[in-house]
Design a protein that fits this description.
Largest interface: A-B, 24 and 18 residues
Shape of chain B: globular
Number of helices of chain B: 12
CATH architecture of the largest domain in chain B: Alpha-Beta Barrel
Number of domains of chain B: 2
CATH architecture of the largest domain in chain A: 3-Layer(aba) Sandwich
Number of strands of chain A: 9
Oligomer: heterodimer
Largest sheet of chain B: 8 strands, mixed
Number of strands of chain B: 18
Distance between the termini of chain A: 25 Å
CATH superfamily of the largest domain in chain B: Metal-dependent hydrolases
Strand content of chain A: 5-15%
Order of helices and strands of chain A: HEHEHHHEHEHEHEEHEHEHHH
CATH class of the largest domain in chain B: Alpha Beta
Distance between the termini of chain B: 14 Å
Radius of gyration of chain A: 19 Å
CATH topology of the largest domain in chain A: Rossmann fold
CATH superfamily of the largest domain in chain A: Aspartate/ornithine carbamoyltransferase
C-alpha cells in the first residue's frame, strides 16, 4: 500500500485511495490515543506551524491549532498579525519572509483559488490548504470521510448527496474528489443558479429538486448558504424560498432512509439550509465531524512535518 | 539609399503575387519588383533572400504601448522595437494610457514620441468616450486632426447603447472605424477565466461566452442601423463568429480580428493558475479555437491582431485573480500564426492578407502592399527556421507571456520600415 508521502496537501483531487486510507488510518490512531487519555502525542515537539488565515475562520483555524498543539508543535497565528497584507505586501513576499524564518509548515486559507498552489511553488516548506476560494478544502473532505467511515464502515457504493451552493463551494469540490476516489456515488443538488458549469463531468449526478434527490441517499451534506453579507446576488430570490425548496426541513428529512446520516461543514444557518430539529437530531453527525477534524489535521501535520514516530513518543 | 532584396519568395496580396522575385527599394519606396536575379544597378545594401519570404510589413491593429503613463510596462521605444523584431512595420496603439488618449494633446504626444523614438510607425487610436468611462463622447474630430485612425474604448465595452449609437453616427461622418471590445460587464461580473469545466475545477469565477456575444449582436444591430464601419476586437467565441458571419451576409459594415493566443491556447492553459494566461477576453475552448480558424478561412474574420498587452512583473507575478489581464504578443505573432500555413489551414498569401493588408485597409493607412511606389514596409522571414522562445530573447519591456519555452517555426530575419532596415542587418 502506497502511503501518503506528498510534500504538500493542496487538494484531494490528486490523492489516491491508498494515500487517503493511510491518512484515515493515521487519524484513527491519533483519535484512539486521545480517547485513551494521550492528550498530547508529541511527534512534532519543537516544530513550528504557521497558520496563515487570510479569510475569517474560527473552527478551521482552532482545529488546526489544537491539532498542532496535540502534536507538541508551536503555532504562529499569522491571521492575528494582520500587518503584512494590509501594508500592501504581496502573498509572495509574505511567504518568502516567513520561509526565511524557517518554520516547519504553512497552513493557509485564502479567498483566492490557487493561492496555496502558488505558495507551494514559491518556497520549500510544506503547505496545507485550509480552504482556497471555491477551489478545495481538503482537510474538510478528509474529516468528512473519516466521519462517514465511522458510521458507514464502507464507502464503496455509498450514495452521498451534497446540497447547496455547489458553484462556490470548495467543500463540495474536495468531497466530490475524495468520495469518488473511494468509490462512492456522489450527487449534487441546488438551485440551477448555484450549479457550476460542466459539474457532471466530475462524474456526479445533478439534481435541482431535493425531493427527488433525498430518497436512496446514505449520506446528505448540507452546505452553508452565505447570507451574512446581505443579499443573495440573485442566486435565488429569498432565504425563505431557498429554505422551502432546498433546505433540509422537518418535512423533507422524512424522505431520507432511516439509517442515513446528515452532515454539515459548519457554521450552520439554522432555519435556512437546515432546520433546528434536523441539525440536532440523532441522524446528525455534525459534532463528530468537528471532533474528527482535529484527528485528521493531526495526521496531515504529522505526515507532512516529518516528525518522530508515534511509538517513539508515547 | 538603395536596397536590393534578391531571390525572395515575394508575397503581395494586393497584386496577388506569390513568386520568386527581386525587390528594389529606393528613397523609402518600392522602386521595382523584378524577375528573380534580374534587378541591376548599384545598391547600398543587398539582402540575399534566397529561401526567405518577403512580404508587406505586418500591421498590428491592436497594440498597447502603455506610453504615456505606464512606462514601467512598455514605452513607445521598447514596444516598437519588439514590433520590428516581430516583423511589424505599423502599429495601432490603443488609448487606455494614463491619461487616456481621449483628446488631441495625448494623441499629439504619442505621435511626437513615436516620431522621435519609434522604430516602426505608430497610429494612435482615440477613445470613444472621455476617460473611457462610456458616458460622454471624446473630442473625436479633434483627435482625428491630431492623427488617430480609429476610436475604441478597448478594455472597457461601451455599455450604454445610446452612447454607442451616437459614437457610430458621429464616427461615420469621418469614415473611421469604431472598434469595440465586446463584453457585457454585468454578465462578466467578477469573472477571470472562461466559464466552463476549468473554471468549475479551478474554483475561479467564469466569464461566459455570452457576455461577449450579446455585445457583438448589439453592435451588429447598431452597425446595420448607423451604417458605421464597426470592427470587433479580439473575437474569442464560436458564437461571436456565427453572429458576425450572419451580419456580413446581410452586408453589415463589419470587420473583425482574432488574436494568436485565442487561436492557439485554450482554457486548459489556465490549469496551473499561471497569471500569464489571465487575459480578457479569456482563453476559451477547443470548439472556439476551431471556429476561429474556420472564420479566418472563410473570411468571417478579417485580421489577426496581437492585443499586445505588456504588464510589469509586479502586476503579474501574484495570485491569478489579482493579476492584470493580458499578454505580450508582437514578437511571437508571426511564428505562431505560420502554424496555420504549416498545418495547411491557410495559404501564406492569405496569412499575410490577415496580418498586413486587411488591417491596413480597415484602418485606412498605408502598408499591406508591395506595389511599386508604396512605402517600402517589408518583412523578410524564414518560414521554417525553428527556435525556442525564451525570456532572454524578449525585447518588450514586459515578459508576460505563456508562450515562454514554446518551440516556434518561422523567424523574422529583416524588417524594413519606409526603406530603413529596423530589424536584422
Amino acid at each position: 500500500m502506497k502511503t501518503f508521502d506528498q510534500k504538500h496537501l493542496l487538494g484531494t483531487e490528486d490523492l489516491t485511495k491508498d494515500e487517503i486510507m493511510d491518512i484515515m488510518n493515521t487519524a484513527k490512531k491519533f483519535k484512539d490515543l486521545i480517547n485513551k487519555g494521550h492528550h498530547v502525542v508529541p511527534t512534532l515537539h519543537g516544530k513550528i506551524v504557521v497558520l496563515m488565515f487570510f479569510e475569517p475562520s474560527t473552527r478551521t483555524r482552532s482545529s488546526f491549532e489544537i491539532a498542532a498543539k496535540r502534536l507538541g508543535a508551536e503555532t504562529i497565528d499569522f491571521s492575528s498579525i494582520k500587518s503584512a497584507t494590509t501594508k500592501g505586501e504581496t502573498l509572495v513576499d509574505t511567504a518568502k519572509n516567513l520561509e526565511a524564518m524557517n518554520p516547519d509548515a504553512f497552513v493557509i486559507r485564502h479567498s483566492n483559488s490557487g493561492a496555496p498552489y502558488l505558495l507551494s511553488k514559491l518556497q520549500s516548506i510544506p503547505v496545507i490548504n485550509a480552504g482556497d476560494g471555491f477551489h478545495e478544502h481538503p482537510t474538510q473532505a478528509l474529516l468528512d470521510l473519516m466521519t462517514i467511515l465511522e458510521y458507514k464502515k464502507e464507502v464503496n457504493g455509498l450514495k452521498v448527496l451534497i446540497v447547496g451552493d455547489i458553484a462556490h463551494s470548495r467543500v463540495a469540490r474536495s468531497n466530490i474528489y475524495s468520495l469518488k476516489t473511494m468509490g462512492a456515488q456522489v450527487s449534487v443538488c441546488g438551485p440551477a443558479t448555484m450549479l457550476p458549469p460542466a459539474v457532471e463531468r466530475l462524474g456526479v449526478k445533478v439534481y435541482t429538486d431535493i425531493k427527488a434527490a433525498l430518497p436512496e441517499q446514505d449520506v446528505v451534506m448540507m452546505l452553508r448558504i452565505q447570507a451574512e453579507r446581505g443579499g443573495t446576488n440573485n442566486q435565488f430570490p429569498t432565504l425563505r424560498e431557498y429554505s422551502r425548496h432546498w433546505g433540509l426541513t422537518n418535512n423533507t428529512v422524512k424522505l431520507l432512509k432511516r439509517d442515513a446520516i446528515i452532515m454539515h461543514p459548519g457554521p450552520m444557518n439554522r432555519g435556512v439550509e437546515i432546520s433546528q430539529a434536523v441539525a440536532d437530531s440523532e441522524r446528525s453527525v455534525i459534532l463528530p465531524q468537528v471532533t474528527n477534524g482535529v484527528a485528521v489535521r493531526m495526521a496531515i501535520l504529522h505526515k507532512l512535518c516529518n516528525g518522530k514516530s508515534i511509538e517513539e513518543v508515547i | 539609399m538603395r536596397i536590393l532584396i534578391k531571390n525572395a519568395r515575394v508575397i503581395c496580396p494586393v497584386q496577388n503575387i506569390d513568386d520568386k522575385r527581386d525587390i528594389v527599394v529606393e528613397n523609402g519606396l518600392i522602386k521595382e519588383i523584378a524577375k528573380a536575379g534580374t534587378a541591376s544597378g548599384t545598391f547600398d545594401k543587398t539582402i540575399d533572400a534566397n529561401g526567405l519570404i518577403a512580404a508587406p510589413g505586418l500591421v498590428d491593429m491592436h497594440t498597447h504601448l502603455r506610453e504615456p503613463g505606464h512606462e514601467g510596462a512598455e514605452t513607445i521605444a521598447t514596444g516598437t522595437m519588439a514590433a520590428a523584431a516581430g516583423g511589424f512595420t505599423s502599429l495601432a496603439a490603443m488609448p487606455n494610457t494614463k491619461p487616456v488618449n481621449d483628446n488631441a494633446y495625448v494623441t499629439s504626444y504619442m505621435k511626437t514620441k513615436a516620431k522621435e523614438e519609434g522604430v516602426v510607425k505608430v497610429y494612435p487610436i482615440g477613445s470613444i468616450t472621455v476617460d473611457q468611462a462610456g458616458e460622454q463622447l471624446a473630442e473625436i474630430g479633434e483627435m482625428i486632426k491630431a492623427g488617430i485612425v480609429a476610436i475604441s474604448d478597448d478594455g472597457s465595452c461601451v455599455m450604454n447603447s445610446y452612447v454607442m449609437r451616437k459614437a457610430m453616427d458621429y464616427a461615420k461622418q469621418f469614415n473611421i472605424p469604431v472598434i469595440d471590445h465586446c463584453e457585457d460587464k454585468n454578465l462578466r461580473g467578477e469573472g477571470v477565466m472562461n466559464d466552463g469545466y476549468y473554471s468549475m475545477k479551478l474554483g475561479l469565477r467564469g466569464i461566459p461566452a455570452v457576455s461577449e456575444e450579446i455585445m457583438v449582436a448589439r453592435d451588429m444591430a447598431l452597425a446595420q442601423h448607423t451604417k458605421c464601419r464597426t470592427h470587433i476586437a479580439h473575437v474569442s467565441t464560436a458564437g461571436s463568429v456565427r453572429i458576425i458571419r450572419e451580419a456580413k451576409q446581410s452586408n453589415t459594415p463589419v470587420t473583425a480580428e482574432v488574436t494568436p493566443h485565442h487561436l492557439f491556447l485554450t482554457e486548459e492553459a489556465v490549469a496551473t493558475y499561471d497569471p500569464n494566461t489571465n487575459v480578457n477576453p479569456p482563453l476559451r475552448t477547443h470548439e472556439d479555437t476551431k471556429a476561429l480558424i474556420l472564420a479566418l478561412k472563410d473570411g468571417t474574420i478579417d485580421a489577426i491582431a496581437t492585443d499586445h498587452a505588456p504588464h510589469s512583473i509586479e502586476r503579474k507575478d501574484i495570485e491569478f485573480q489579482l493579476a492584470m489581464c493580458g499578454m505580450i504578443g508582437l514578437e511571437t505573432a508571426l511564428a505562431l500564426c505560420l502554424k496555420l500555413v504549416h498545418d495547411g489551414d491557410l495559404s501564406l498569401i492569405h496569412l499575410i492578407r490577415l496580418m498586413s493588408t486587411n488591417p491596413a485597409k480597415i484602418l485606412n493607412i498605408s502598408g499591406g502592399s508591395l506595389e511599386v511606389g508604396a512605402p517600402a514596409d517589408i518583412t523578410i522571414f524564414d518560414m521554417n527556421e525553428e527556435w525556442t522562445y525564451t525570456e532572454d530573447k524578449i525585447l518588450s519591456k514586459s515578459k508576460n507571456t505563456p508562450f515562454k519555452g514554446w518551440k516556434l517555426k518561422g523567424k523574422v530575419k529583416h524588417t524594413i520600415c519606409e526603406g530603413k532596415i529596423v530589424w536584422g542587418n
